[in-house]
Predict the structure.
Amino acid sequence: MYDIAVIGAGLAGLHCARLLAERGLRVALIDRKRSVADNVQTTGIFVRKTWEDFALPAEQLGAPIRRVTLYSPARRAMALEADRDEFRVGRTAKLR
């Protein structure tokens, strides 16, 4: 019996499940992968809040940057720019 279910074992789902468990809830973590040790699917670009909330080790992150361009599957571009270093490229192979 569980108190709550978290769908998706990516960075956000794992973090959410951990916080809920730390508060004493019984958490069911549901994902299509067989193991949370499998590769994490991500764009590879992390915003400041991500690396602060998840306390990712520096060796898992590239240098801070201020401007990134993301492309949707339809090849539409979305440019993001910040006044300070708000983005970092994640070395996703090390996030397993």
The helical segments are 11-22, 48-53. The chain has two domains: 1-38, 42-96. The beta strands are 4-7, 27-30, 45-47, 61-65, 67-71, 77-81, 87-90.
